[in-house]
Amino acid sequence: MATSTNGKILATGGYNSSGYLNSTKLYDSSTELWTTTGSMSTTRCYLVATILSNGKVLVAGGYGISGVSNIAELYDPSAGLWTTTGSINTARYVHTGTVLTNGNVLIAGGYGSIGYLTGSQEYDSSTRIWTATGNMTTARYLHGASMLSSGVILVAGGAVVSGYTNTAKLYTS
After folding, report:
1. Which residues, listed in sequence order, are joined to residue 10 by a DSSP beta bridge?
2. Residue 113 gets which letter from DSSP?
3. pTM > 0.90
4. For 30-57, how does the pLDDT look when each residue is reduced to its tens digit (9 = 90+)?
5. Structural domain of residue 101, as residue ranges?
């Protein structure tokens, strides 16, 4: 889920008794109503949704009928449409997405076809290109990531090979 710049909450993808989903709905808290909008091109769950500075929502990765996904899509709330954008370099799910001070998006960790991931990738919102960037020393998924007031990203906790961790790492772009 992501809260868009117009105050509506975007819910997309997921899984139910019918299987993996690509449907998208918007919730308007002022009317307490859900409306259906455009669907993603790919059915998946465990994706990450991040709101860009231009108001569009970037969805990356996830898990679907074909397994771990490297597909990234942009949702344009003014048109209600999805478009595919550059694919992430390493397919992953249960990862984090954080907008950086330069407007790019950092995705970190997660779980991929090779298991727990240490790597991170940066999405350039102007060129729509993904670039591999720093690795964490501890592979993790189901973790949290937040931008600190200094512009540094704090990645903390999560599941690791041996169970769970309370360690944290800092990322500077």
Report:
1. 2, 26
2. T
3. yes
4. 899 999 999 999 999 999 999 999 999 9
5. 2-171
